[in-house]
Sequence to fold (274 residues):
Amino acid sequence: MILLAKRFPFWRWALLTVFSVTLFFVLYGVCQSVFLLKAGTLVRILFPVTASLLLMGAYALWCRVLEKRWPEEISVKSSASGLATGLAVGFLVFAGITGILALLGMYRIESIAPQWNQVAISLADYLLVACGEELIFRGFLFRYIDERYNTASALTVSALVFGFIHIMNSGATVWSSISIAITAGLMLGMAYKASGNLWLPIGIHWAWNFTQGNIFGFNVSGYHSAASIFTAEVDGPDLFTGGAFGPEASIIAPIFGVALSIIFAFYWRLRRNQ
Fold:
């Protein structure tokens, strides 16, 4: 296998990465345009799912044509187990964060009245977000730095970049960006490194966003979800609730993120020593 970092000089890799980022935003923009045009539920589900498949196909084509290798990190063989594990982890972690807020009296369910059409649309939208961001930040950025330098540098740079792109979100602060870098950037980077595939971080990312916004009704990285299964009142210090940005900007989320990162790091060391 010819490694990405050895095959491409930095400038060429950077240009190709910019192209992949642009492709993601174009596809995401098309999906949002369909949403604004008030298309039917089925169309609004199929568009982001199709866009996700196109992104995965484009990544596979990149690896096959430009890197001269099969992209084992998105192998269909590991997709079911990786996604299932990731979905379970993402859900359980955010359920844990919500449970702590509930025990502290800062989260109270007021009603259960889901709009299932909107919930299904959000599930599809978050699949596209998870696929696009994981391919860019773990599939390209993390992998390139890891191959050229080392894992510590890859974790640090990819986590910081991932965290601070969220500074443009509604309600964002420097702390919210740092928190996302620790909670998600570090955790998802270690999930990729430990598993050797992108399905695990994609599953975690997908379930994390959906559980946060469309099950428990929190803001997701500053954005209010269109519909959630639970309608809840969140009331407490921003230090614990994350304020308008959502629980990702709380002090609780990074604790879970660091704990999971440590678990993934131990698993990675076990795999490496086998």
About this structure: The first helix runs from residue 4 to 7.
